[in-house]
Amino acid sequence: MANKTFSEVQDFLKGKVILVANRGIPARRICRSIRERFDAVAAMTATDVDKTAPAASTAQELMLLGTDPRAYLDIDRIIDKAKQRGVVGIHPGWGFASEDTRFPQRCKEAGITFIGATAEAMNLLGNKVQAREVARKLGIPVVPGSEGAVDIPTARQLINEIGLPIMLKAEGGGGGRGIFAIHNEADLEDAFFKASTMAQASFGNPRLFVEKFLADVRHIEIQVIADMYGNVFAFDERDCTVQRNHQKLIEITPSPWPGMTKNLRDRLKDYSRRLVRAVGYHSLATVEFLVTPDGTPYLIEVNTRLQVEHGITECRYGIDLVEEQIAVAFGAELRYREESQRPSYWAMQVRINCENPQDNFAPNSGLISRYVSPGGPGVRLDSNISAGYEFPANYDSAGALLISYATDWEKVLGITERALSEYVIGGIKTTIPFFRQVIKHPLFKQGGINTNFIATHPELMVYTDLAPEGERLAKLVAEISAKGFNPYVQLGEYRSSSTPCLGPFEPVLPPISTAARRQPSPYPQGDRMATLDYIRDSGLVHFTDTTTRDLTQSNSGNRLRLAEDRLMGPYLDNAGFFSLENGGGAHFHVAMLANMTYPFTEAKEWNRFAPKTLKQLLVRSTNVLGYTPQPRNLMLKTGEMICDHYQVVRCFDFLNHVENMRPIAEVVMDRKDVIFQPAISMSWAKGFDVKHYLGVTEAMLRMVGDIMGASPKEASRHIILGLKDMAGVCPPRFMDELVKALRKAWPELVLHYHRHYTDGLFVPSCGAAAKAGAHIIDVGLGSSVRSYGQGDVLATMAYIEDELGLKCNLDKNAIRDANFVCKQIMPYYDRYCAPYFQGIDYDVTRHGMPGGATSSSQEGAMKQGYIHLLPYMLKFLEGTRQIVRYHDVTPGSQITWNTAFLAVTGAWKRGGEDEVRYLLEVLGQVTRTPEKELTDEMRRARLNIYQDCNDAFRNLLQGKFGKLPLGFPADWVYQSAFGSDWKSAMAARTEASPLESLAEVNLAAEEKACAEILKRKPNDEEFVLYLNHPADALKTIQFKSKFGDPNNLPLHVWFEGLKVGQDLYFNDSSGKPHHLLLLSISTPNDAGISICRYVLDSEFMSCEVQVRQPSGNGAKSTLMADTANKYHVAAPSNGDLWVMYVHPGDVVKAGEELFNVSIMKQEKAVLAPIDGMVKRVLKTADFKENKQMVSVREGELIVELGPVPRVCGNEACGQPIPMDNIAFCPYCGVRVS
To answer: Per its record, what are the GO molecular function terms (predicted)?
Structure first.
């Protein structure tokens, strides 16, 4: 009887049902061949996870398997359903049950054709131990290793025989899973357990065997196909050398390796043909080898199924292997013959996995927000991805297979590079950007790599994986819109999606004439001495505008953005100001904390759109741009960057300790184009009189003169002296007296006066200072003036000119234009950023809280539920300022406020308002009564005044911030603050600058640490930001990477987002225009997630937004970890917990493995973050014992640790002591220390 032909099989299968027992890419690929060639009905299995997946659309029928994601492994159920439907053949695809010998056997028993190897052949070749035995008999070289499956003792014996390293491999495995490399014998037992468990979970067979680990090798495989009549065809090799964790990433045919000779190719083909013939094999199979540099091959395994990389062989030969496999399974004679089937192309496949290569290829899942597939000549794509698809966490990470083919290797590389540049998958991490790195690498192009290529070339991981900025900004708009508020401005949930909006921000901008733009500034640029000479000799009162820094710092929490600065800046630049204060202080921090902007990039922008006027920045002496003293080398590094972007540097110290300013002074005075402005921190109180401030000025001039090598008198010509009244308490009469005294003592010293509006006396105080001879006054635009910042420039000018008869030189019309622009901006900041408490507060002259701290501190008391105690706190402030004498400016204002807050709330907690009143009575007695007249009761009672203070106050008392301006307080203050340790605290006091004791920062180590977090080297600005504010700098850098520059979004969108149906036109940073239309925001699901759908530039997109906490039945039983709790250990991603190593009561060390989660078929060890004792284990699993995995959610609390307990010192016991208040071990009775 003649052999069956391909055509006969076609006729037989027409209209019949062939089932693909698989999912995703393999199911889609196989269904295509079934439909194209055989006109059969393509059916596909599908769980509930997959029934609406992109791949499912290729099938003509779906065989639904229900809710269990692992149902693809339920062979009996699949076959039962197949029989009911009348299926004639089942194709297993790859993965899942494709190599389970029970599958072909059960199909045979059910009368269904299994499209693959027989059970017998699969057992002989698919089982790695059996395949090695067959190969040995045929004289085919195999990797040295065990004769069969091993246990741990046998594995140890083999290590002694063949040496380390070795590999533990799953007997029934494939796809690189269940492989563990052992380099240290101590790791054997743990690795054996894991490998065996993973093998059981993946292949239903826990048995392992051992192979010698070969390091410098290539992975080469031969595709073969055989029919039932003894015909075997071997195709040219596929080079699978590019791997990670023993799993293939890139496959190429033919191999570009120069060592792949015709002789070696023929030899590998011959081995492969002999293997399949020896066992009577008929179907597709892949014979895999490791080849040493000298061309010596070793068989490692035979895969008895369709391979993931079969497509490149199809492209090389112009064939369809799947249709041939189907035909052979139904008895057709193989159509391929060596003499007629010739290769024509080179081909390469890259596996587009949903993984993050920069995080050790950690798999990830989630919503595909955007999808653009590549195309064009020489491109083939097999995928299971589309826009809007929720890529599941239940299965492996394979998203697509991208194949490029051409007539030569160079062209294939070019097509692949082009296709990868076209391919866009948004919403999750993929291997696309990593492959762009790989194919550009010279070694890869030359074919000169081995299987360790990725592991030994870390530079492949140095790349930035960013979507186009327009797409990232659209996602930010979607998030703000869905939440109803912007979570990044650090204002809490200041509105909801139903809160009425202010409406679109569409500012009207008055024109600036060309003549005005060309009019130069009267202030000489780039020459410090020329600028100071002009100010001294002009006979004018000069002004600095603080609108975009200190004024809105006080009134809007510093949240005025660069986007709005760009609107106001050009008008301010043409008004004739001496300087524009646009940086430093809290603004520097909040630029990152809430505005998500690089501060020095912001400064660079200012110098571009407002080029004529000097830019001014505020520095907090040793704190520089932060809140705690910085070492000298960090001050210098930050100072150098400041001088590159600003032309006036104002530096103050809240203690007026001038040595704290020295490093900044050194940097600035070294620059002839930057003006140094040391500033006196001022208060109006006993001891802080004109004589005192003359002494401070003398010290500042001596310090500057020492740096210059000049006298204090000469130094006075080279700087500006700032007079900084940050609380707004110094009355006009005091300013008149002080300024006159300073002008008399140093006639050539330029004076710059800064004060706040808090007490309501801004204008007369500024007028008094100007009349007395102050050269420069800080002011702001009237439309931004509220209560706590500076006063209105036009009102101040009117008073100075019309009432005092002095001359000014500002362009009032330019100021009016700037004011008009600002007037359109401020309503948004007033609505969302204004302080809770507003208005003039003349009592600031008593309690002394500066600027914005007046409101923010009092608001803090209200939010913490202590508003009823606020009058007492202010009264405490008034009293304590008379005991511990310094200036209430940053960081002193925070120290003072916290001291008052803690003292009053502490007293209230102990005894209610009576106790608080008594505290203040004692404080009043102490401040009003001479020491000799105090009663013994008051002397004892005053020791409780500071009993609740914090470490910052104690550090202040010991001089750790610097020398207190009026000396250390009385001894009893130390008794009160330090308790029984007061004498040692006093002995440790110092009047030296903290710079003398602070160790320098290891800049190289810090840069390395930053680079490790960012996965790239930080640029110069990022590094300086990181050094000053590590956490917020990283958050800003990561925000910019995630979303782009938020200053490209209009003001109303930044605060309010869009409503459904609204659209937005915006430009990205390159100037490219975009159009965004918000289509819908779904109701949150039980996980609290809404789906936002929108159109960006005519392309439909979507993204997930967490809008509220999880709710519903699922949430009730799921406890999420608190990310701020160091003792909470969470599931790292959605997946399956398969082994728990710890139990309640266990003591663990940091870095010890607690449990292991299978995430998309990759294991993830979860380690103890700190030393501790296991307090709770909320979920547990032991797959090896019961073959059950437990589903976990990303962020779900799995293990809760507690502090490390005391341990019994008895070595024979060593048990943890369960309670703190026991003296004897409850286990052995030994006394514990």
So the answer is: ATP binding; metal ion binding; pyruvate carboxylase activity
